[in-house]
Write a structure and sequence with these properties.
The protein is α/β, with parallel strands linked by helices. Among the domains are: about 130 residues, Roll (Luciferase, domain 3), CATH 2.30.38; about 140 residues, Rossmann fold (3-Layer(aba) Sandwich); about 100 residues, ANL, C-terminal domain (GMP Synthetase, Chain A, domain 3). The protein contains 17 helices and 29 strands. Strands 8-7-5-6-9-10-20 form a seven-stranded mixed β-sheet, with helices on both faces. Strands 17, 18, 19, 21, 22 and 23 form a six-stranded antiparallel β-sheet that branches. A four-stranded mixed β-sheet has the order 4-3-12-11, with helices on both faces. Helix 16 links the parallel strand 27 and strand 28. The two termini are about 45 Å apart. It holds the Pfam family AMP-binding_C. This is Acyl--CoA ligase. Keywords: Ligase. Belongs to the ATP-dependent AMP-binding enzyme family. InterPro entries: AMP-bd_C, AMP-bd_C_sf, AMP-binding_CS, AMP-dep_synth/lig_dom, ANL_N_sf.
């Protein structure tokens, strides 16, 4: 299928769904002082979505790896009791921050829904952070209360509420309480989602109720559009989705929010990701939608017991966190032949609210640099160095605005001035072009590494490496990896006579960096790193060089459960 044919098919589907009278009709509204396109028939808060979900009745909403479950009928009352617990026991009021640093689980989900129902702001802390990273996040957000599980609580510099041990207290505190009735505006803050910082201090992207609802609506829209493009066939039964993304990621947060909105069951394995356990849950619970990072899906498909899953049971396989690799697409289609040609890929970021464009496989096959037609309600501008729009087909900086966009970075005026242009335009930091409404990516954010769905900025790791007295200079690059998408590789120049080895470098990094940031591959060089005339290391040259005199490929570090 040619690029033009694929684009026209998408545009026709968009017109039917978003035009006057369509189920996703687009209109205009004022968003933080700027007029922009929005979906007309939208909820106005996460609490409204929660209250409406009771209509799905006794159907399972959340199923957990230990066999426990929460139905749609039970969810609003359990959230209401948890909200009362936050208010009565911990004094949480509208606008307060409620932090959580824990593995996925039922307590995490209830704290999420209860916090946003109160009009408070969820602080979703990365459960893999080191102690200094956790402390930085707490200093930035000043939460009224902090929830954690025992493992992560040991890293906290403050007292915390054990989210696992108090689960029973939360749901029994006020079992007959109604959902909170405090007024919540669409543009009120709902959640702080952290993005990887370049200086050791992650930035907290503040997403409003409008942002998250718009993301939910976009996910629902993509599902309906995909069905329409396949001939409109309705699924044989309601969706039962695998949920393995961490809830502190926008992908994980969106998974639960969207599922509650559309009445889908989400199945949450507990603890460290275990492909065998996921296969057991897929068979036991009838999971028909697999989703995860490249790493998750690769491990599932390579597991010796994957044959226990009836291929026809799986209706779709979704990849998030980084681009799908061609090899993984081939493996998916070999295991599930009926999914051939259905792969797709989204382009977006936490700051953009998760989605800017969406690319079906037919377009990817024609143009690998294509990231798809811009989605409804999303506006993209290709700008020159002065911020002026460039003409169609010419490269420039990718700017975006939409109702999904973050309000801004929490308590970070300097970062906001750099990221947000007048008119609520987000400077993505990416470079590309528009051709007849289709977006093409020329380069990703400078040097960004995406390892197993986690954003890793080399600058932070380079700083840590160069703090070691034996390291003269260091550069960190991403290298392709079948399992993780990319791995973190450090190229270092040592002082003469140094006996420092790769293990010592990793140990040095691990004292202050999260495990997924620690280089798994190390190259020791005996000549200076290549630099351009302005003194910047030419990483594109490093990436193309053969290995130096000593290369050590360490075992890929496992993320914690």
């Amino acid at each position: 299928m040619s690029l033009d044919i694929a684009r026209n098919a998408l545009l026709q589907a968009d017109h039917r769904l978003t035009g006057p009278g369509g189920p996703f009709e687009v209109t205009e509204d004022l968003v933080l002082g700027e007029r922009m396109p929005v979906f007309r028939n939208r909820p106005t808060s996460l609490r409204e979505i929660l209250a409406s979900s009771a209509c799905f009745g006794s159907r399972d909403c959340f199923v957990f790896g230990d066999g426990s479950r929460i139905t749609f009928a039970e969810l609003p009352s359990r959230v209401a009791s948890t909200a009362a617990f936050l208010r009565d026991v911990h004094g949480v009021r509208q606008g307060d921050r409620v932090a959580i640093c824990a593995a996925n689980g039922p307590g995490w989900l209830l704290v999420l829904w209860a916090t946003t129902s109160l009009g408070a702001v969820l602080v979703a802390m990365n459960g893999w952070w080191s102690e200094p990273e956790i402390e930085n996040a707490l200093d930035l957000t000043s939460p009224a209360v902090v929830f954690a599980d025992e493992k992560r609580g040991a890293r906290l510099p403050c007292s915390y509420v054990d989210v696992d041990k108090t689960f029973g207290d939360m749901i029994r505190h006020a079992p007959d309480a109604p959902l909170p009735d405090c007024p919540v505006s669409e543009d009120d803050p709902a959640a702080l989602i952290f993005t990887s910082g370049t200086t050791g201090r992650p930035k907290a992207a503040c997403l409003s109720h409008r942002s998250l609802v718009a993301f939910i609506m976009m996910q629902e829209y993509l599902g309906v559009r995909g069905s329409a493009l396949r001939g409109g066939a309705a699924p044989a039964r309601p969706a039962t989705r695998l949920a393995v993304f961490p809830l502190f990621h926008v992908s994980g947060l969106a998974a639960t929010l969207t599922a509650v909105h559309v009445g889908a069951t989400t199945v949450w394995p507990l603890g460290r990701f275990d492909p065998g356990m996921v296969i057991d849950l897929t068979v036991r619970e009838g999971i028909n939608i697999w989703g995860g990072t490249v790493t998750h899906i690769f491990r599932l498909l390579q597991h010796p017991r994957v044959g226990e899953v009836d291929p026809k049971q799986i209706a779709s396989v979704g990849i998030g966190g980084s681009a799908t690799t061609p090899q993984l697409v081939r493996i998916i289609e070999e295991r599930f032949p009926h999914l051939a040609g259905t792969s797709s890929s989204g382009y977006g970021s936490t700051e953009s609210g998760g989605l800017i464009s969406w690319t079906p496989e037919a377009m990817l096959a024609e143009a690998p640099d294509c990231v798809g037609p811009v989605l409804p309600t999303v506006e993209v501008r290709i700008a020159d160095d002065r911020g002026d729009p460039v003409s169609d087909g010419h490269d420039g900086d990718i700017w975006v605005r939409s109702p999904l966009l973050m309000i801004g970075y929490w308590n970070n005026d300097e970062a906001n001035a750099e990221a947000l242009a007048p008119g609520r335009w987000l400077r993505t930091g990416d470079y590309g072009r528009l051709e007849h409404g289709v977006l093409f990516l020329a380069s990703r954010r400078r040097d960004l590494i995406i390892r197993g769905g986690e954003n890793v900025y080399p600058f932070e790791i380079e700083n840590r490496l160069e703090e070691h007295p034996d390291i003269i200079e260091a550069a960190v690059i991403g290298v392709d990896d079948d399992e993780f998408g990319q791995e973190v590789k450090a190229v270092v120049v040592l002082r003469e006579g140094s006996s420092l080895d790769a293990a010592g470098m990793r140990s040095h990094c691990a004292t202050t960096l999260a495990s997924y940031k620690v280089p798994t591959r190390v190259e020791i060089r005996h000549t200076a790193l290549p630099r351009n005339p302005t003194g910047k290391v030419m990483k594109q040259v490093l990436a193309g060089l053969d290995a130096g005199t000593f290369v050590d490929d360490g075992n890929a570090s496992e993320k914690e459960d």
